[in-house]
């Protein structure tokens, strides 16, 4: 067997391992490591080490099995995205650190199920947070003032891991508050909150990943990249689907679930059709939602005749008048 053939076989084997092993490694392996660290009362910096491993793994796998090789190339956005990650991850960690103070200000009735196994407590926290975050996410596509800030996230034109934390800090705060506040009110322990914060970061890496991984039928339940790409379609209305962070359960119940296995995505389908020139610099993205041009009004833009009767039929490429 030639050296070229052996190299090709080795490359194919690595790709198969990455395609089917990446998600279990991240969801079970790294989250499991976080649960073990927190349950043992180890120093919190170990959770940061796990997060660094998650980010490094995400970047590596995106290059081994890219969905779109072009999305791995910088578009003068890498530095901006790293700033988004640093700011928003700091906010998440700060909110975890503030839990004892919040608990002192707002005494909880201590309804938290401390007697449950630690992994069950974490899973319960994830499910509750998933509902709150999904509700705010859905509302952000319906309510103008929320959309102003959420639009920062939808300005992306390539899909890769760091996009998950490319959010306006005010919108990030609103989502996390909706997800975590109910938990704090029933006595959320700091160690469970710490694992939840890690799980959110890992989930965002997977959800926006440029890796062409496979998860089988789980793609209909877990809010990962195969389903989330439909959420980033640039046409209003068409992209108003698949809002879940951890699961798609709420989308199925709210009838906002969408999936077409035949659809192939590229950069021409991402972003916002109504705002193709949305600011790309970090500081401008922070300021833009406060400006007059930073919002959109939902209006039908076209009509179509049906059996002789005019009915409103919005053009998806112009649904938002900005």
From TrEMBL:
Annotated TM spans: 20-39, 45-65, 86-106, 118-139, 176-206
This protein's record includes keyword Transmembrane helix: yes
Ranges for region Disordered: 299-322
Location(s), subcellular: Membrane
Biased segments, Polar residues type: 299-315
A Pfam family this chain is assigned to: FA_hydroxylase
Annotated Fatty acid hydroxylase domain residues: 123-256
Superkingdom field: Bacteria
Primary location: membrane
Keywords attached to this entry: Membrane, Transmembrane, Transmembrane helix
PANTHER family per record: STEROL DESATURASE
Name of the protein: Sterol desaturase family protein
Native source organism of the sequence: Mycolicibacterium arenosum
